[in-house]
Amino acid sequence: MESYIVSRTRVTLIDLSDTLENGTGAFEPNRHQIQYIDHVQGMRMTVDVFSVDQGLLPTLFPDGHAWAVEVATLSSHSGTHIDAPYHYGPTSGGEPAKTIEQLPLRWFFSDAFVLDMTHKRRGDGITATDVEVSLAAMGYGIKPYDIALIRTDTWKAFKQPGYDMLHPGLERSATQYLVERGVKVIGIDAWGLDRPFDVMFREAASGVRGRFWESHFYGKEREYCQIEKLTNLDKIPRPFGFKVACFPYKLKAASAAWTRAVAIIEEPFDG
């Protein structure tokens, strides 16, 4: 969390993004690996890349240190990321589904609100009624382009194997409720917006139909985006009255891209 003063206004920034690191690479469903090239290795790499005389390099780089570089191998769905409508299917609402670089920037910087669903257990569904009750308790009415954040506190287990099966998830009715009121981006502090896969698979095997990946598949009917793997929603001091910036990286024709999501809270400052 960072705060600073601008024109008699205190601005507080809260980082809502997870840190991608090698320590979690072994158990992430979307595997990743970061190769670290330090300053000494960077010197050797400079020779290979630019075919430079090795005797010349020490005179160019003080202390024999060239540049540090990282090489990351990862999915567009690794870490805190935004799913584009194309992730859910090839079409949305009968039109070609937008890929991540085609989405309006307007969607990703807007007023936001937090729905506290920490009372829900692993595998529970979050319904439209749950959303209505939470909004009524907050005294908040949804506006077009609001960013909806679903707090489950599952993010506190992100560094533990199996965290991707620990969360509750939005049922279709909840997602539909939000999107029909103008929400374009729904974020959650869990691995996915839907309930865990093991719960949905068991349900489907028992003969239940129409509930598998129901929030994702709703995006085939009406376009919207999801932010998955948010953190620190519990650090936001109020349920609404703040903004979120969560612009996605531009990846050509991609189903998702990474984001550094940040909550922005502005308050009068008279000090």
Quick structural overview:
The chain has 271 residues and is α/β, with parallel strands linked by helices. Helix content is 18%, strand content 26%.
Q: How many angstroms does the end-to-end distance come to?
A: 20 Å
Give the overall average pLDDT. Answer: 95
Q: Helical proportion? A: 10-25%
Question: What structural class is derived from the secondary structure elements?
Answer: alpha/beta
Radius of gyration: 22 Å
What are the secondary-structure elements, in order, as H or E?
Answer: EEEHHEEEEEEHEEHEHHEEEE
The CATH class name of the largest domain reads Alpha Beta
Total number of strands: 16
Low-confidence stretches: none
Description:
With 271 residues, this protein is of the alpha/beta class. It folds into two domains: 2-18 and 77-268, Glucose Oxidase, domain 1, CATH 3.50.30.50; 33-73, no CATH class. The protein contains six helices and 16 strands. The protein has a ten-stranded mixed sheet with strand order 1-2-16-14-8-10-12-13-5-15, covered by helices on one side. A two-stranded antiparallel ribbon has the order 3-4. The protein has a two-stranded antiparallel ribbon with strand order 6-7. Strand 1 and strand 2 form a beta hairpin. Helix 3 (128-138) packs across helix 4 (172-180). The mean pLDDT is 95.
